[in-house]
Structure formats: structure tokens, C-alpha cells
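ZP: hey, is the magnesium ion complex queued? I don't see it on the tracker
AM: it wasn't, my bad. submitting now with these inputs:
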Amino acid sequence: MSLPFRIGHGYDIHRLVEGRPLVLGGVRFESPVGLLGHSDADCLTHAICDALLGAAGLPDIGHFFPNTDPAFAGADSQTLLARVIKELHGRGWQPANVDATIIAERPKIAPQLEAMRRRLATTLGLPPEAVGLKATTNEGTGSLGRGEAIAAHAVCLIERRSDA
Ligand code: MG
């Protein structure tokens, strides 16, 4: 029997370096350091992409958007997430809800949580209340605690589309 719901999990981490913009959940932060990566390195959006792809039983984000492909250099990760949603739709799935946690020692994430939630909800085609978003520090421990990187975890539920 094929269930009408599937769950997925995603995780991503990117290194913080000088001279890069900091983008999380499609929202630009005022910060002297930003995330290093081939695209805009938005680890929150990448974790959500992987949760959705995993739920659909599809390969990970690196398969769809290789970091060796110049087409994705500096790419807006909201565009990548929109493409992931399209892949799901093509297989008869749609997101039902997403819940994610950002782990960052700096900058302060909380003031932008609502903006990120709304931006992600728009890209996901979900109402904002179907997107859960939290931020925590790593209590000063390890590489995340030293502010060397920002990481994100995400889980999601996807459901069969009514027309599938
Ligand atoms: Mg990534």
C-alpha cells in the first residue's frame, strides 16, 4: 500500500568567511561575514531542499544542482527550492509542512525569523503557519560555537497531490 504522506530530513552546513553575503531562508543579513559556497550558500534553504527530496525518495541537492556546474554559481537558493517543488509536483507530491532549526552563534537570527518564514512559505507554496522556523546557538562549543560556520536541520511532510 502506498501511503499518501512521506517524511523527510535534511541537514546542511556552510563555512562563514569574510567578503561573502549572508543569506538565510532567502533573506539577506547585515553581517561582516557570509556563507561560502557555489550558490548563495543558504544552508537553511538547502536543508529544506534535501528534506523535500528525501521525502520523495529523490537524490540530494548536489545531484540536481552540482557545485561544478557554472549555471549554479552564485545561484539564489530560492530558485533551487522552487525547482525542487517542481520535481515533487512532477511526481505527484506537494509539501504539507516544513520545520527547521538554524544553528548560528552570530549574527542574531531571531529578528529575521518572520521574514525568512514568509519568504520560504511563498517559495514552498504554503501558508506561513505551515513553516516552522527556530534559531539556536551552539552554546559556544565546537566549530559552530566559534562562529566558523552556520548549520541547519529541516524536516518536512509531503502529501499526495489531489490530482495525482
Ligand atoms: Mg549547501
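AM: back. The pocket of magnesium ion is lined by residues 12, 14, 37, 43, 46 (CB under 6 Å).
ZP: great, adding it to the tracker
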